[in-house]
Amino acid sequence: xxxxxxxxxxxxxxxxxxxxxxxxxxxxxxxxxxxxxxxxxxxxxxxxxxxxxxxxxxxxxxxxxxxxxxxxxxxxxxxxxxxxxxxxxxxxxxxxxxxxxxxxxxxxxxxxxxxxxxxxxxxxxxxxxxxxxxxxxxxxxxxxxxxxxxxxxxxxxxxxxxxxxxxxxxxxxxxxxxxxxxxxxxxxxxxxxxxxxxxxxxxxxxxxxxxxxxxxxxxxxxxxxxxxxxxxxxxxxxxxxxxxxxxxxxxxxxxxxxxxxxxxxxxxxxxxxxxxxxxxxxxxxxxxxxxxxxxxxxxxxxxxxxxxxxxxxxxxxxxxxxxxxxxxxxxxxxxxxxxxxxxxxxxxxxxxxxxxxxxxxxxxxxxxxxxxxxxxxxxxxxxxxxxxxxxxxxxxxxxxxxxxxxxxxxxxxxxxxxxxxxxxxxxxxxxxxxxxxxxxxxxxxxxxxxxxxxxxxxxxxxxxxxxxxxxxxxxxxxxxxxxxxxxxxxxxxxxxxxxxxxxxxxxxxxxxxxxxxxxxxxxxxxxxxxxxxxxxxxxxxxxxxxxxxxxxxxxxxxxxxxxxxxxxxxxxxxxxxxxxxxxxxxxxxxxxxxxxxxxxxxxxxxxxxxxxxxxxxxxxxxxxxxxxxxxxxxxxxxxxxxxxxxxxxxxxxxxxxxxxxxxxxxxxxxxxxxx
Amino acid sequence: xxxxxxxxxxxxxxxxxxxxxxxxxxxxxxxxxxxxxxxxxxxxxxxxxxxxxxxxxxxxxxxxxxxxxxxxxxxxxxxxxxxxxxxxxxxxxxxxxxxxxxxxxxxxxxxxxxxxxxxxxxxxxxxxxxxxxxxxxxxxxxxxxxxxxxxxxxxxxxxxxxxxxxxxxxxxxxxxxxxxxxxxxxxxxxxxxxxxxxxxxxxxxxxxxxxxxxxxxxxxxxxxxxxxxxxxxxxxxxxxxxxxxxxxxxxxxxxxxxxxxxxxxxxxxxxxxxxxxxxxxxxxxxxxxxxxxxxxxxxxxxxxxxxxxxxxxxxxxxxxxxxxxxxxxxxxxxxxxxxxxxxxxxxxxxxxxxxxxxxxxxxxxxxxxxxxxxxxxxxxxxxxxxxxxxxxxxxxxxxxxxxxxxxxxxxxxxxxxxxxxxxxxxxxxxxxxxxxxxxxxxxxxxxxxxxxxxxxxxxxxxxxxxxxxxxxxxxxxxxxxxxxxxxxxxxxxxxxxxxxxxxxxxxxxxxxxxxxxxxxxxxxxxxxxxxxxxxxxxxxxxxxxxxxxxxxxxxxxxxxxxxxxxxxxxxxxxxxxxxxxxxxxxxxxxxxxxxxxxxxxxxxxxxxxxxxxxxxxxxxxxxxxxxxxxxxxxxxxxxxxxxxxxxxxxxxxxxxxxxxxxxxxxxxxxxxxxx
Amino acid sequence: xxxxxxxxxxxxxxxxxxxxxxxxxxxxxxxxxxxxxxxxxxxxxxxxxxxxxxxxxxxxxxxxxxxxxxxxxxxxxxxxxxxxxxxxxxxxxxxxxxxxxxxxxxxxxxxxxxxxxxxxxxxxxxxxxxxxxxxxxxxxxxxxxxxxxxxxxxxxxxxxxxxxxxxxxxxxxxxxxxxxxxxxxxxxxxxxxxxxxxxxxxxxxxxxxxxxxxxxxxxxxxxxxxxxxxxxxxxxxxxxxxxxxxxxxxxxxxxxxxxxxxxxxxxxxxxxxxxxxxxxxxxxxxxxxxxxxxxxxxxxxxxxxxxxxxxxxxxxxxxxxxxxxxxxxxxxxxxxxxxxxxxxxxxxxxxxxxxxxxxxxxxxxxxxxxxxxxxxxxxxxxxxxxxxxxxxxxxxxxxxxxxxxxxxxxxxxxxxxxxxxxxxxxxxxxxxxxxxxxxxxxxxxxxxxxxxxxxxxxxxxxxxxxxxxxxxxxxxxxxxxxxxxxxxxxxxxxxxxxxxxxxxxxxxxxxxxxxxxxxxxxxxxxxxxxxxxxxxxxxxxxxxxxxxxxxxxxxxxxxxxxxxxxxxxxxxxxxxxxxxxxxxxxxxxxxxxxxxxxxxxxxxxxxxxxxxxxxxxxxxxxxxxxxxxxxxxxxxxxxxxxxxxxxxxxxxxxxxxxxxxxxxxxxxxxxxxxx
Lengths: 675, 675, 675
Ligand SMILES: [Zn+2]
Ligand SMILES: [Zn+2]
Ligand SMILES: [Zn+2]
Fold this sequence. Notes:
The first copy, chain A, is of the alpha/beta class. Helices cover 31% and strands 18% of the residues of chain A. Chain A has helices at residues 17-26, 39-42, 52-63, 79-84, 111-127, 154-168, 171-178, 205-233, 252-256, 268-274, 282-287, 290-304, 331-341, 375-387, 406-414, 423-435, 466-477, 507-510, 600-614; strands at residues 2-6, 31-34, 67-71, 134-138, 238-243, 261-266, 308-313, 344-349, 400-403, 441-444, 455-458, 481-484, 512-519, 527-530, 548-560, 564-570, 579-586, 589-594, 596-598, 626-631, 634-639. In chain A, the strands form three sheets. In chain A, strands 9, 10, 11, 12, 13, 14, 15, 16, 17, 18 and 19 form an eleven-stranded mixed β-sheet that branches. Chain A has an eight-stranded parallel beta barrel with strand order 1-2-3-4-5-6-7-8, surrounded by five helices. A two-stranded antiparallel ribbon of chain A has the order 20-21. In chain A, helix 8 runs antiparallel to helix 15 (406-414) and helix 16 packs across helix 19. The two termini of chain A are 24 Å apart. The complex binds zinc ion (3 copies).
């Protein structure tokens, strides 16, 4: 487990580099990421390259016993290039062209930009192919940030048509697959298909899904172009990319297939402000939410089933959320440990020093603008020291898989049918319930091999093929335990309904069908009540949960066939008394289908019942903001609240979810102590 | 009174048609609407027509003793046509062109599209001119839906100039009529006048009104083009169009003049979510609001003073409102009876079967996606059975006319002067008060002959010509009773103020002038107090209403001349003590002018006083959500609430507003019983 | 002190002019502003001029002993001109062109429009060069209203490049000054620099500041073009311009340098609705806020250190705010007195008569549409009479300067880092605290000579040059008292951070550095607590303020060096106990640095301490809405509340902040009496 930092020597007088880099080494940092966004410095005019500054900075990094991680500079094509080849710019659906003046103003499908990308990547990688101090490369930066995955330019239109022709072969198959007889949306040829532009009414959901897939695939292809060139220059380098948190438009599993290592950028107090479901609490504003951050850790770890990196770790206050409150005391250390517990092998802080110029002046670094230590520096140094004992190769064992499906996300995003229906938030509702019982989770795609997991949670597996249904059925029949959430099995692979009841090909497995669904404004949301009587697995009988529990946003009225009823609606409305949650036994396993978006108490009851049935040892319910992780024989208790951790109602032994030695680490906002 | 359903055979395998159509007949349905949006199926390539599927479907409908209602497919020009003649597309004020990919992407003034429209309408109508199973035609679908009445393309610019030249003759008359000396807005010729595009500040209100009128007239002209062609093909057919609910940009009276029958599309639980003033209550989310729906019933019935059709009746959950809660039990039957009570001759449910593909997958049908009965099916079948006793030709008698004026709506929309000033909501405030006393209402244009009405309510007759003022004065002088609302008589026909005090040419009739007006944010709204002492008609003395009543949004300070004061302001502000409501006697009739937007208690007091003066028998005040209707000797008590109907404070006899036999029908959310 | 009115004879039949103008004179009005927006009447076709109407109106004004103030008509180029030279139109960042149909649809940098401007201004000024009845000219109208200061057209792009080349000389200096190495934003030449258009992420803050300065300078240049032509025609005329209230994009100090007299347009009940921080109270909705209006009075008076005019005084209800409540009784008189107290030499009401046509029909005048007196007429007449005693040349003495810096405003607007961070609102927080102690204020630019002020308040002097820091240090060293607010001294002149701690070059003066800053959402805002113990100046010891006081939005953690701590944070968060306000003694003066946005109690405590230290006599804290002003030996107590003024807790003598005779004027909403 190592630490590092992101550094921009080009922003500082060269006479300060030695001091800066020495201070990094002093703090125990081992990696220095550089050259991101540096195209304008590397090639001030076409063909005129200046590598001297970077040569020198890499040398200094090596001199201090650290390694450089370099970035291709493609996230910021310079103005001369944009002016010379204006077609590289992204276009919005209404034709607005995104101009130079910030970053990410290029189109992934631009043929001109792919040429320029190849040219610059070849040039910078060949330059450092022999360097003993360069460990590997990050491609570009945060693909898709600032809503840039989906572009609507002419190059994209062409590429989309090619992508469609490859996928569907002939236009009649596309018309059939999407169902274009509806509203006279048939196409006569692939040439007739445009990117989805401004229309009077909503778009065809199958067309939207196709465009979402195409756009994500375009990034995959663009990343592969870079990865191949990097490996060509020096096969010993690792290739990585820094993904974003809770990022909805890019399939990270697909991009990761071309990487040696997955990295992502973690900004806990920013994420709770700008991509969180609900208003952040004071504690969350100071330290973020461990489940929100943890689910990304688990997703990116699971992408290659391999330790990941945090390429950018929040170092203090940041500039881009609505507000920039100061993180709680020790938060920068807490986040590093939390990442380690979730399987990180390196945590690099972003950035070394508060920048004097440009868009990120309100983004802290480990050092202040004047070069003196900022709040994060001591945290980072302490974390580096504490990490010395950890082996970076340790695997994180997770008995539970949460199935995360970008296709389902995109399909539901095209048809949410409730303004507050957010796929990610629904995933977090189930994910957090498992994590709240101290149990570790892999976040895997539907294509993953599930056989190694004792239990599987699929919160909203919206698109289900026959093949996937078969695999899930085999899993359960072989003794697996599955918990499904609402809106599962609704669509086929092309975002069309099937001429059957829901959950479609999973109906036999679930032992029930969905009679009706409804989305509910807040004033209609109410509760479900636990069904009386014994259950075949005893799962609900002894969970101590209250007999009533609330839900939100979505409700399905279930018609059980083979399944038993677990919860029924307790509402002032036509659903009253109808089954809301059912359970079914198939072969050696069992499956529960939850037809509502559960509030935390219900999610916990369902999760703990699942864990119990699966024979997974689980803890008493942890307080909000407190989570447990274990890896390589160490246990972390991470406290994201401002309260000193007492865990009054929790038996310390119940936290020992692993047999390893316990090495509790606590880094609470106000310096809570070990428990 | 008949029932029917909308069917899209082209969305289903032909081997299922027989089963589907037989099930329709089984439910007692008598009309099947088809061919809407079917251009792409009817003419997959230019000049290549395929009528076989529709021939077969019509035959099957006839075989089962039902009649087909066909639709011209012009709401969805196919992609090949859009690509061939791109000028048909609508344009937004900022130049954004609305593209293919949903529906209604054509311009009503496009010369190219009028040619194509004539071509396809001729072709499909000639095809079925001899069919014994086709009862009539619906032109297009929901003209203007998705904000498509007003387009800003070059064809529209040309058409607007022609429309202006026709209306004003020469440009100086236009400059004079609008008052273009203001801010140097004079035009030198009609060629200089553009559609209203993006401007730094707000537009000239007279120009906006002209554009609203022109745009509505364009639809009238476009509909007439179709209606004429349909009648040419077979003069025995009826021609109808399905209007939308609470639809503000199209003058339905004008379009209706070219129709044989008016139809509209009723979605009660959608309307309370997306076009309702205020947050919908749980009851309204389950069954809609009877006054919101009822006012459209009455408007569309009054348009031709003839029974109307509900061409699309909500069948269950629908896809387009923010949320899609399930309707209450029996709601689909309730709505059909409510329509019948208001004068419908047919109710067609939309749609037969939940569609597997495209934009409306989240829209229920009478049958589920798998073809089995959905919640609405039993409701529809029961309504069909119950309707057997009703004669479809029965007239609805209404002693009260509410004057609804699209020109006033457009003028107020251009100058609301309070963000929450909504013409339709103000109309509903007065309309609901009359309906809340069990009294039936016609909703008529200002041009209507009022002589048959015992009372007239004009909630905001903003544009008043001398001629209209004379007609209203004659009506009152002849014994009519009138209730005016605020903002009446403010403008001339061109949306200009008159150089007189308000209500302009109605001042003598009202017997008072408006000294001041003000719009009020919520925290300034307060109350009016009933004036003490006897009144000349005793109207307020015995109404039992509280002496104080609240108002909202708008307040006028009245200066009575001949009129008596009925209410004065009771506020903490400069209006305190000033007259707010006055009454005047003219000839044999009387007129009340209400200078505020009344809250329900005040609206009820004013309405009941009006009914009393007019000698109209009225009921005790009905509970919210409960309404009474009578037609052809039958009385309906419709309960839109989730509560069983007890009507505790209401004497059953008081509901007998008609001398006919009572045939109370109740279809409450939870199965309330007859009362 | 004189009064006047704005009149549009071209909107009325000429036979009514005599009556109208006579009624003006009857009310004691002495100025009549005319010809604004009249281009279309003056030149209906190119080269065809019609001055007859204006000749006649001026003559009538003179006949009645009044003087005309004329306006150049350039705010509304007529349609024929726009059609002939379409390049004059403004363009939005996304390319949308702003069209004819309202006003201000021209670009300040349009070369075509500058030609046309010169042509029309020469023509109209030469026409009246000999008139004995024309006192002076207003250039255009409300430069920049409707967000028109910043245009993005091709002419602007060219002009921006020239402006940059003038400012920076060569492109490397620009790159260095802005810090364009960040995100590869370097330019190779001035030709590469565009106006800031649509980009994926936020813009470079230095580029935004440059564009804001350039755009403001463009208006300065455009105004100078007009002012020069007016003076050329008749050097005896005064030249003025009517600025807007609380107007953020135009540097009024810079424009004023080319004027003889500054004027502005005051709409108190509009401003509290559409440009006020927070929801307006009922009193504010009826009479506006005296500090909001007062700060503009003081700013525009300070611009030339000379009595100003209110060129448009609200006459009653107005059309453009969200709501148009009626002003309280006497409000139109109150505002005139308030303006007089703040140094106005003339108050002209806008407008004479409610207009029958166009966009301002819902804007009251002193007369109603029918020509009879409206609510404001009696107020205006009474004010005219009362003003007879006042000498218009009287100077307003202000012992305190508030430093208002448009560059800081623009810099903070580019990087607010809290959605609710509004520069103007923060200025008002400090300004209102000084005014709340009955003390008069000049609102001056950073370049002002401060030597005459006993105390200086700089609420957020964000951009601080070394030179400015030296001047402030000299001021304090020489005995001056300074109060700084948060976010002071953060940036250099180009909107870049300095490689030092904040407040940058003011750090020695302040005797403390900013360790951290944070912006806070509402749920994290809390309080500061007064430091215990004696202070060197005794300033806080006897102020009677509560020991705790709340703050909002922004917090800085201070590290005092030479300074003493005055307040520390009292929060549940990492700032707890850290210094929030410090004070330092330098030479003969002292400086206080307040690191938070103070709520009113804290602002009052800081302001009264400042006044005490500076030896400025100040009043007991005045109630909200009540303010005191004095000028030329008269004292005004202006009451903007609806309550009769009792001032129960205030010793009348404490109001005597001047030794002059007291001539208290009260014009409360409900007719409160003198106190
Ligand atoms: Zn593209
Ligand atoms: Zn058009
Ligand atoms: Zn421009």
